[in-house]
Design brief:
Layout (H helix, E strand, L loop, with lengths): L4 H15 L4 H16 L1 E9 L8 E7 L3 H7 L7 H8 L4 E3 L21 E8 L2 E11 L6 H45 L6 H12 L4 E7 L5 E9 L9 E3 L4 H8 L3 E3 L21 E8 L2 E9 L9 H64 L4 H29 L9 H16 L4 E5 L2 H4 L2 H22 L4 E8 L2 E8 L9 H5 L1 H12 L3 E6 L5 E8 L2
Parallel strand pairs: 12-13
Antiparallel strand pairs: 1-2, 1-5, 3-4, 4-5, 6-7, 6-11, 7-8, 9-10, 10-11, 13-14, 14-16, 15-16
Helix pairs in contact: 1-2, 1-5, 2-5, 5-6, 5-8, 8-9, 10-12, 12-14
C-alpha cells in the first residue's frame, strides 16, 4: 500500500477503534464513523447480511450522515437492491465517480439527499461475508484508488471485529438461555410463584427479543392445539383459543420434531391457523416441546414485519432452552402424578376404614335400635322415634358411602357413571338452591343400572332439586338413591314450607307431572308427602330388570 504515512496512521487508529469493543452495535457504528474519517466521506452506511440467509437479504442497515428526521421522511430502509445488491452478490469493491451513471443504480427514493461519488467494500472474515460498507460523496470530489485500499484494509479488520462481536453476543445469549433454564427448574421445585408456562414464555420473549410469544399444547384427542399462554403484541387475539392442528405450523414441527425458522410469515396461507389472527406478522421460529415419546406442543417466537429474522444459531440456543423446559415440565408432571397417587392411596385407606369400621359400627347400632323398638310395642311414640333414628342412621351410612366415592375420586368409576353424574347435578343446582344438597347412594347402583335408567335417574334428581329451588324455600335438601333387590328408590327431602301453602305450586307444577309420567312409563310410581318435622318428601320408584 503506497498510502501517505499520515493516512496509514489514521488507518491504525481506525483499526484500533473498530476492534476495541465487543458490543456488536458499537462495533458496527464504529466501523462507519472510522471509515468516514479515514477516506473523507460525507455519508456512510453499513448493511448487515442476515445470517444463514441464502438470498443475502439485509438484516439491518445502519447509516451516518442523514438525520433521523430525514431518514423518516425518506421511508423504509434499503433492502439490498441496485448497487447495494450488486455488492452483496459480487463481494468485490465498487468505486464510482457518479452513482446515477452506473447501470446497476436504481436511483434514490424521494427526500433522499443527492449523492455523487460512491465507494463500497465487503466486510468479511475468512470466507464469511458479514455485510458491506457503503461510502458516498467524497470531500475531495471522487474517491481515489488509495481511498479504496484504505477502506479494504479497514474492512478486513472490521470483519474480524464483527466476527468476535457476534461470538461474544452468542456466548452472552447462550448464558442467558442457560440461566433461564435453571430459573424454570427452580420455579418448578418451588411451592408457589409464577406459573411455569408463563415463565417459559416470558423469559423466551425477553431473551430472543421477540414481539410475540405463545405456548401451544396439543389437546387429548390430538386434533387441535390450545394456546395455553401468549405474551406480547396481539397476544389477546390468540390467547386461550383452540385451533385445528392440521392448519398450524405446530403440526409440521411436531411431526419432524425439529425447530422451524421462518424469515417471514406474512406471505403464508394460514386459513384457520392462529397465525392468521396476527396482523403484523414477521420472522418467526417454532420450537418443539418434547413430552415423553412425542412432542406435547410448541413454543413460538415472532417478531414484527420488517425486523431481523432469527438466525440458525438463535434457533439452536432457543431449541436447547425449549428442551430443558420440556424436561422440567415432564419432571413436574411426574412429581404431580406421584403426589396424586399418594393422595389417592391415603384417601383409599381412609375410605376402607370408613367402610370396614365406621359403617359396620353404625349398622350394629341401627340393628340394636330396631330390636329395642320392637320390644316397645306398648309405647308406640318411643318406638316410632327409635325407628326414625334408625332411618337417620341408614341415611348417614349412605352419605358416608357417598363420601367414600368422593375420597376415591374416579378410581373404579367411569367418567359417565351414575354417582359422578348425580353429584354433578347437585353441584349445578346448588347456586339456585343457595346450598349444596346432600347425596347418598345405597346398593349396587353403579353396576346394575343400564344407560337408559341412568339417564332417567339423573333427570329425576335434576327435576326434583330444581322444583325445590323454585318453590320450597328450603335451607337443606337430601337425595337418597337406593337399590334394594330389584327396586330402585329415589327419595328427595327438604326442610322447606311443605306441601301446604306456597309449596302447593310445587305439587302442581309441570315438573312433578313429568316425574310421575317418567315413573309410570317404567312401571313405577311417584309420590309427594309432608315430612315428619316439616318440608316435603318426594319419592320416585321403579323396578329394574
Amino acid at each position: 500500500m503506497g498510502a501517505h504515512p499520515r493516512r496509514l496512521l489514521g488507518l491504525l487508529r481506525a483499526v484500533e477503534t473498530v476492534t476495541g469493543d465487543l458490543s456488536l452495535e458499537l462495533v458496527l457504528r464504529n466501523i462507519i464513523e472510522s471509515a468516514l474519517e479515514l477516506v473523507g466521506a460525507r455519508y456512510g452506511a453499513l448493511g448487515v447480511i442476515a445470517q444463514d440467509d441464502a438470498e443475502g437479504r439485509l438484516e439491518r442497515f445502519i447509516h451516518v450522515g442523514i438525520s433521523e428526521d430525514d431518514a423518516h421522511r425518506i421511508g423504509p430502509l434499503p433492502s439490498g437492491k441496485g448497487l447495494l445488491g450488486a455488492l452483496i452478490h459480487d463481494p468485490h469493491p465498487i468505486r464510482l465517480e457518479h452513482i446515477n451513471r452506473d447501470s446497476r443504480s436504481v436511483g434514490f427514493p424521494g427526500n433522499h439527499p443527492s449523492m455523487e461519488s460512491f465507494l463500497g467494500v465487503p466486510i468479511h472474515s475468512r470466507a464469511e461475508i458479514f455485510g458491506n460498507l457503503y461510502l458516498a460523496d467524497s470531500v475531495n470530489g471522487v474517491f481515489s484508488e488509495e481511498d479504496e485500499e484504505l477502506a479494504v484494509a479497514l474492512a478486513l479488520a472490521a470483519g474480524t471485529a464483527v466476527s468476535n462481536a457476534r461470538l461474544y453476543r452468542d456466548a452472552q445469549l447462550k448464558q442467558r438461555w442457560l440461566e433461564a433454564s435453571v430459573e424454570i427448574g427452580a420455579q418448578l421445585l418451588a411451592s408457589d410463584g409464577e406459573d411455569p408456562l408463563h415463565l417459559i414464555a416470558r423469559r423466551a420473549m425477553d431473551i430472543a427479543d421477540a414481539d410475540l410469544v405463545s405456548v401451544a399444547l396439543t389437546t387429548s384427542d390430538g386434533e387441535s392445539v390450545l394456546i395455553e399462554v401468549a405474551f406480547g403484541e396481539e397476544a389477546d387475539r390468540i390467547s386461550a383459543r383452540r385451533f385445528p392442528l392440521s392448519k398450524t405450523l405446530t403440526r409440521s414441527v411436531l411431526i419432524n420434531e425439529q425447530p422451524l425458522v421462518l424469515p417471514q410469515t406474512n406471505h403464508l396461507t394460514l386459513d384457520n391457523s392462529f397465525l392468521a389472527e396476527i396482523e403484523d406478522r414477521g420472522p418467526a421460529m417454532v420450537l418443539p416441546l418434547h413430552g415423553g415419546a412425542q412432542s406435547r406442543g410448541t413454543l413460538m417466537l415472532m417478531r414484527r414485519e420488517g425486523r431481523a429474522a432469527f438466525s440458525e444459531s438463535e434457533a439452536v440456543m432457543a431449541a436447547g432452552f425449549a428442551s430443558h423446559a420440556s424436561v422440567a415440565l415432564e419432571l413436574a408432571a411426574a412429581r404431580s402424578l406421584d403426589q396424586k397417587i399418594k393422595l389417592h392411596e391415603d384417601r383409599d385407606r381412609i375410605a376402607r376404614d370408613l367402610h370396614d369400621h365406621v359403617i359396620q359400627e353404625l349398622f350394629a347400632i341401627g340393628i340394636s335400635l330396631e330390636g329395642a323398638a320392637a320390644e316397645l310395642r306398648n309405647d308406640p311414640a318411643i318406638a316410632r322415634r327409635l325407628n326414625q333414628r334408625v332411618e337417620d342412621i341408614d341415611r348417614t351410612i349412605r352419605r358416608i358411602r357417598t363420601s367414600i366415592f368422593d375420597l376415591r375420586g374416579n378410581l373404579g368409576i367411569s367418567s359417565d357413571g351414575l354417582s359422578k353424574r348425580v353429584l354433578e347435578v347437585a353441584s349445578d343446582v346448588a347456586p339456585a338452591l343457595g346450598f349444596t344438597p346432600h347425596v347418598a347412594f345405597g346398593g349396587l347402583v353403579e353396576i346394575r343400572l343400564d344407560d337408559e335408567l341412568t339417564e332417567d335417574v339423573v333427570a329425576v334428581v335434576r327435576e326434583t332439586l330444581t322444583n325445590i329451588a323454585k318453590h320450597a324455600r328450603a335451607t337443606e335438601a337430601n337425595v337418597d338413591i337406593a337399590l334394594s333387590g330389584d327396586e330402585l328408590t329415589i327419595t328427595v327431602t327438604d326442610d322447606g314450607v311443605g306441601i301446604d301453602g306456597v309449596a302447593a305450586a310445587y305439587a302442581r307444577s309441570s315438573g312433578t307431572t313429568n316425574l310421575r309420567r317418567r315413573a309410570e312409563r317404567l312401571g313405577g310410581s311417584f309420590e309427594l308427602a309432608s315430612g315428619a318435622t316439616g318440608g316435603t318428601i318426594a319419592r320416585w320408584r321403579t323396578g329394574i330388570r
